[in-house]
Amino acid sequence: MKVYSSFLMVLVIIGLGACEEDLQPQPKGHPYVLTKEVETSQEGAFLKGEIVHLGNSQVLEYGFVWDNSPNPTVDDHKKTFLINIKEGPFSFRVTGGLVNNLDYHVRSYIKSKLYVVYGNQIEFTSPVTKSPKIIDFEPKIGGVFKKIEITGEHFANSTTENKVYFGEYPAIVDSATQTKIIAHLGNAPRSSSVNISVVVYPNQTYTMHDIHPERFTIKYPWKRISDLPRSFNRYNVVSFSINDKAYLGLDSEDMILWEYDPDKGELEEKTQFPGDYDIDEIVSICTFTLNRNAYLIIEPDFDNDTIVQLWTYNPASNNWQRKADYPGGKTNSSAVFSLNKKGYYVDGKSKTQIHLWEYSPEMDMWEQKPDFPYSPNYPSSGFAIGNKGYIICKEDEGQYSKNYIYEYDPATSKWTSLIEFPGHFHTMEGFTLNNKYYTGNDLKYDFWEFDPVKNSLRKIPENPEFRKPYASFSIGGKGYIGIGQFEREEMYEFDPEMLE
Length: 500
Prior knowledge:
Blueprint (H helix, E strand, L loop, with lengths): L2 E2 L4 E6 L3 E5 L9 E4 L3 E3 L2 E10 L5 E9 L9 E5 L6 E7 L8 E10 L2 E11 L7 E6 L2 E2 L5 E6 L8 E5 L2 E2 L1 E5 L3 E5 L7 E12 L2 E13 L3 E3 L13 E5 L2 E5 L6 E6 L4 E7 L9 E9 L2 E8 L8 E6 L4 E4 L10 E7 L2 E9 L2 E8 L4 E5 L8 E8 L2 E7 L8 E7 L4 E7 L6 E7 L2 E6 L5 E5 L4 E5 L10 E5 L2 E5 L8 E4 L6
Parallel strand pairs: 13-20
Antiparallel strand pairs: 1-11, 2-3, 2-11, 4-6, 5-6, 6-9, 7-8, 7-10, 10-11, 12-14, 14-18, 15-16, 15-19, 17-18, 19-20, 21-44, 22-23, 23-24, 24-25, 26-27, 27-28, 28-29, 30-31, 31-32, 32-33, 34-35, 35-36, 36-37, 38-39, 39-40, 40-41, 42-43, 43-44
């Protein structure tokens, strides 16, 4: 075994994280470590080091770094200790993640608030190590975001060198030691029962693996429920939910509204819309719910001076009533949401002129609020969570457009730009569940979860059998989408609890 002595290297942290490497020994204020000879056997490589001096600043961590290239750093293979920080010897046995009969270089290191110090370098040839072995995993059933603890032997000591598979589906490794891996699936196209395997990649050309015989059951959040008893016109259909029932319709010449019970898969004809225009004369209908009533902002396609009407539907009385007309006139794009007993209509006259109006059901009155300040944009959908309203805006009118989420605070009448959807996006129908919003991308058919508390977007499993839903609503902690581009009677149920 060859031992290489090297100058002590100290990284001095300057300012806000900037650092500077000095190849000369520093004053005694810095910590000091040594690397000892490596003992190798069939059980692995036994690394040894010693903290000679802790220095004058707080020590945060210490350990070993190694690689098959000289002068490894904390960016290479690493074993870190965060406890028992004291002067004296320390050691660690590498039992997995080494390529057999390959030359490696190892250095001890120590990190304080002011310095990162490496010890001398030792070279060793790796022994013939054992392949990884899965002993057990828990839990045995879970969704794509459930973290699974895999216990075993001879895993690699880093997240990048361990690959975990649930059947054929690659998982995301959250953390890894030589005896325990935490991983979650991230995505899967369906419910299934699969084996879990671990593949160790010490480098790009050498692998070792193991498969556990017991199977893991993947929960899937989507399921197809009973088809609708009738087909709907996808371009004009209205959808909303009140009191554990959904309402669909106004999509044909008779302008009938239907009540839908997803548990029973039944439709019940409720009432005919009393408005004085045909379905072909309607450009858009925006819907929001307040106080167990639905409000429909209806824009007909008559002429430039057309009045945009507001109608309310009460399921308890099964009656329609016309309310105060929307005073802002015709729009080019729009979004709507409701909160704090008020309705809000985002009216995009153009991509640079976007107005906000507040409607009070108690006063039956519209009030214009400060304009939406971010442009160019085209509002496409809206929702409310807690005491805030949110809209999704497209940067361009076309399908292949960037999309952004904006937050509105009615207490201050202020808008805040939050987060951008990844890639080019064409939002489809969505729903709110458990203070989160779920929506999808019509172009790629993927589905996303927006968490306003974290201001984060998380990709969730898409429905692999359904395309471009034109109706959506939520009931009893579950979301529903249906009336698709081709499957005009199909309905699907989404259960967020199946994600974990």
